[in-house]
Amino acid sequence: MEVESKSAAGQIVWTASQSTFVHTFLANFIDEGLKTSTGFKKVHLNKCVEALNEKFKLNRTGDHIGNHLKTLRRRYCKINQLRSLSGALWDEDQYIISLDHEHYRNHFENPKNKGDDEYINKPLPYYGNLATIFGNSVATGQFAKSSNEPLGVDADCTAENDDNGAATAMTNGQAQSDVNDDNGASCSAATRPYKKAKVVEAANESLARVLERSTQTLANAIKEAAVANRALPERLFSIVDNLPGFEIQDKSRYYGYLVANPDIARAFADLPLLYKISWMTMFINANF
After folding, report:
1. What per-residue confidence (pLDDT) applies to 39?
2. Does residue 195 sit in the same domain as residue 221?
3. Which of 267, 197, 245 shows the shortest CA–CA distance to 31?
4. Higher pLDDT residue, 1 or 91?
5. Enclosing domain of residue 73
6. Is the dihedral of CA 123, 128, 130, 135 positive or negative?
7. Measured between alpha carbons, how far is residue 10 from residues 1, 27, 161, 250 in Å?
8. Which of 203, 231, 242, 288 has its CA 20 to 30 A from that of 249?
């Protein structure tokens, strides 16, 4: 069980698994058409925080979710900014920003770019969900985060703000029910994604529906097979163990499930990284 943690300044600290849970939960909301033109309604943030608190035994509020969305929004803009760097290559399957040695060295000669290392030449599995949530409707200037600020901490979520509900804006004395995710601004053309993430392609089909069809196709193939192939994929343990954002206990449970179901394990091993994370998240949420 994860425990509630705060930084020395009293700010909420989010673990990778907690953050993954939040943006996966909200991305599914969008796929179901539950986001307004101005953002998420407070009732949807409250549903998200209820599920988060139940899973991780926390005591977060809808305002904490709203503030964490701002952090995720800054991260999304930062990734898009780095994608537009000279010499940068973008792998849309694994969500990797690649720089060769020379461009990498030139970029990090500037001390201000020190924090960009966590985004370059490594998979960014959460990008698909962030693209679903924010799309092109975020501002790169207002929400740009300094490279020296830790992205696991919500910089605008102090202990005082937690108590006062900073995520709910007040207009003419009334609480605004929507948490705005764009403030009327949009990403610049230089930082706009060149292609939509695969999870929102095909007329913004929901990830849940895609996975449901994939699972049904797999089930039909298994039923039609004359002899079941019980061989497990090579490096199955490494594939599960290297998935980011999950606790060891959850990885162990899912690995055991795959070992007991070789056909599903083989299908899982061939999925792109984001789909692997989604499958594992759905399994954990449904069973634990």
Report:
1. 76
2. no
3. 197
4. 91
5. 16-199
6. positive
7. 21, 28, 10, 29
8. 231
Tell me the residue type at 223: K
Alpha-helical regions (H) of 165-206:
201-204
Residues 245/16, Cβ–Cβ less than 8 Å: yes
SS3 40: strand
What per-residue confidence (pLDDT) applies to 183?
Answer: 38
Q: Final residue of a domain: which of 199, 234, 266?
A: 199
pLDDT tens, position by position, 31-81: 777 666 667 888 888 999 999 999 999 999 989 998 999 999 999 999 999
Flag whether pLDDT at 134 surpasses 80.
Answer: yes
Please compute the mean of the pLDDT values over residues 238-256 and round it to a whole number: 90
Cα–Cα distance, 70 to 32 (Å, whole number): 22
Residues 46 and 160 in one domain: yes
In a shared domain, residues 222 and 128: no
Distances, alpha carbon 227 to alpha carbons 113, 140, 258, 259, 267, in Å: 55, 55, 19, 18, 17
Please tell me the predicted confidence (pLDDT) of residue 174. 34
| 211 domain residue, yes or no | yes
* Residue whose C-alpha is closest to residue 99's, from 108, 87, 84, 112: 87
Q: How far apart are CA 129 and CA 138, in angstroms?
A: 14
In a domain, 9, yes or no: no
Burial track 166-184 (b if 16+ CB lie within 10 A, e otherwise): bbbeeeeeeeeebbbbbee
